[in-house]
Amino acid sequence: MSEIDYIQWQSEFLTGIDKIDEGHHHFIKTHNKLVDIINKDFCEKKLLEILYAVMHYAEHHLINEELCYQGYDGFSEHKAKHKEFVGKINDVRETMEKNNNSDVCIKLQNYMHDWFMQHIIKKDMEAVKYVKNNPR
Ligand SMILES: [Fe+2]
Hints:
Layout (H helix, E strand, L loop, with lengths): L17 H22 L3 H26 L6 H24 L3 H32 L3
Helix pairs in contact: 1-2, 1-4, 2-3, 2-4, 3-4
The protein binds fe (ii) ion.
């Protein structure tokens, strides 16, 4: 199996809102830990640890964002995406409980990578820009 790429932290990912940036930084670290365990073939032993970190992101960070983005004109759509993320993570957890294999790790890594590319660096950036330009 070829090695999977890490997400490299870049200053252009910064939104300027500390709480949000901390959450995103933590998300990247968790993603990269997952890449490590896939590359080292430790998936069965370590997946639960990763999953808990992602659940923490979902419970704390996504809620922080929702508090911050109130008033944003794309708020409902953004919140719906968060709900979809939580649903996906719950699905991964259920699948893992039934069938603990490396496919689950790779699927989770793909999903996290897509989430980073499609949501974090696009949708969150748009939301933060709106909130900064339209202070409450
Ligand atoms: Fe978000």
